[in-house]
Inverse folding.
């Protein structure tokens, strides 16, 4: 049973509560005892634990996923085996798109685009490293503190589904409702299969329905291969025709009829009228030269990437020419001053591959370019570019420090003008929170454009250390937050201290042959020397 590891220690991880259960593994919240931080611990189910090939494949694919580094890919911290249990430790992100869809019938078009942009960015990086996910679905798309989509379980579906134990139970690679047609046929897959599954996810999120429903996976698989898709606007008329066209193209039966890669999909999503202004798909990480070749099949096809490279080279030539001619004859220098300003003004905006289309009435110039075109108000009738600005308002909890690009700028709230930039990191943090309190920090990355007025809330809360004593020791105890958040479930024999986000809670305890126990409390009322000690008396 999935609760067999609750309160136990696997390697250096102490298991706190169950987060989810799948066909191949259980996922727990656990504490890394070395770093004193919470993690998500995926543990291979016992029926696969004796399968040496499955265990090795599980660890190998997890190690492959660990090498993928991107803001929209979950961080794999550790892969290992302890006392017969194979595990993968990842960053703890308790919210998911599946949970969001459980709360709401469907999501707004803007929110779906926001999620799809993030997933497309993650897929571009993975596909560039020749890693195919094979199981893109709402359960595997987690949500960060600010709603950013973070993809989990790269490669694990293939690792587990290819084991003899999986074959024995008629399991297949992936989830049938999100299969691509080629996946349902058992054919060789490439990145376009993941794009199809993302299209199914977008369809489900935007309409509240799957394109093909049913309990028989074979029937659903045949539908993906043969049946036409009901247009989205037939179900939700308020969706835009442009958005519908993108989703239907992703759901094309033939891979060649879909987008050529995730970068091309990101371009199409970013150009939608409903695309959120505070998030764009980042299709390339910071890479060294020896990784460019590996990324080129996915990234270098992007027309925006080509324009970026042309723009950067043109700027470099202009700067070099300015330096070279700086000491030449006055008349030559004057001629070049006019020519270089005119040429800089005619350059396309230089951005990375994540950039949106720049409005034609706006010219943005980097600090380097400003040094080239600075000085007079006009030269030969041409006005130099000016620095683009935006207005930012950031609010957080009263005791939280606010950081912009890793520099503390205020406490609790910050309202200021800021230069437009393609990437601005912002975070709020409670400095004296206990180690491992993920609620005490919130961060995000913004794209700030000329004329933007951005209001951002980064709610952070401190945590308290909790210890509880209950008899009998096999009692099940649940701490439910009454002011929002995630419940904590634990067994009575849990040892040590766990963390609770500060606030008001209801305790529910149950045990065989005992009467149920229920009580409400506020953490700050019970805290003593930084620890909340709870005694749970049960009548047995």
């Amino acid at each position: 049973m999935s609760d067999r590891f609750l309160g136990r220690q696997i390697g250096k991880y102490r298991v706190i509560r169950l987060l989810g259960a799948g066909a191949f593994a259980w996922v727990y919240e656990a504490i890394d005892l070395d770093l004193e931080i919470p993690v998500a611990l995926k543990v291979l189910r016992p029926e696969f634990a004796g399968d040496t090939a499955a265990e090795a494949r599980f660890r190998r694919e997890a190690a492959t996923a660990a090498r993928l580094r991107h803001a929209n890919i979950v961080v794999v911290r550790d892969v290992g085996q302890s006392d017969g249990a194979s595990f993968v430790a990842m960053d703890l992100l308790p919210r998911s798109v599946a949970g969001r869809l459980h709360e709401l019938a469907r999501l707004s078009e803007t929110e779906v685009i926001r999620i799809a942009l993030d997933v497309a960015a993650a897929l571009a990086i993975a596909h560039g490293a020749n890693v195919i996910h094979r199981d893109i679905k709402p359960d595997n798309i987690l949500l960060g503190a600010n709603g950013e989509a973070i993809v989990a379980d790269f490669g694990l579906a293939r690792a587990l589904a290819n084991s003899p134990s999986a074959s024995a139970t008629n399991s297949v690679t992936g989830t049938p409702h999100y299969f691509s047609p080629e996946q349902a046929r058992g054919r060789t897959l490439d990145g376009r299969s993941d794009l199809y599954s993302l299209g199914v996810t977008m369809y489900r999120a935007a309409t509240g329905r799957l394109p093909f429903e049913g309990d028989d996976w074979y029937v659903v698989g045949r539908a993906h291969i043969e049946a036409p898709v009901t247009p989205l606007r037939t179900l939700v008329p308020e969706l835009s025709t442009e958005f519908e066209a993108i989703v239907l193209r992703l759901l094309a039966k033939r891979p060649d009829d879909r987008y050529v890669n995730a970068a091309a999909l990101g371009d199409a999503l970013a150009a939608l009228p409903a695309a959120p202004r505070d998030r764009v798909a980042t299709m390339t990480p910071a890479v060294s030269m020896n990784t460019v070749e590996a990324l080129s099949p996915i990234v270098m096809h992007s027309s925006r990437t080509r324009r970026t490279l042309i723009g950067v080279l043109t700027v470099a030539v202009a700067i070099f020419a300015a330096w070279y001619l700086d000491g030449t004859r006055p008349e030559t220098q004057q001629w070049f001053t006019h020519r270089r300003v005119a040429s800089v003004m005619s350059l396309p905006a230089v951005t990375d591959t994540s950039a949106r289309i720049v409005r034609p009435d706006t010219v943005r110039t980097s600090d380097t370019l400003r040094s080239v075109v600075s000085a007079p108000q006009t030269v030969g009738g041409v006005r130099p570019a000016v620095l683009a600005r935006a207005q930012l308002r950031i609010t957080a909890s009263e005791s939280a420090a606010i950081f912009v690009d890793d520099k503390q700028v205020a406490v609790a709230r910050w309202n200021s003008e800021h230069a437009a930039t393609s990437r601005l990191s912002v975070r709020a943090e409670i400095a004296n929170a206990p180690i491992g309190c993920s609620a005490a920090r919130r961060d995000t990355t913004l794209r700030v454009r000329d004329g933007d007025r951005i209001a951002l809330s980064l709610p952070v809360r401190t945590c308290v250390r909790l210890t509880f004593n209950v008899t009998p020791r096999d009692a099940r105890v649940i701490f439910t937050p009454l002011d929002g958040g995630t419940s904590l479930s634990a067994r009575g024999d849990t040892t040590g201290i766990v963390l609770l986000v500060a606030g008001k809670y209801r305790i529910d305890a149950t045990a065989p042959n005992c009467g149920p126990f229920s009580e409400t409390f506020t953490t700050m009322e019970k805290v003593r020397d930084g620890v909340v000690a709870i005694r749970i008396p049960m009548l047995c």
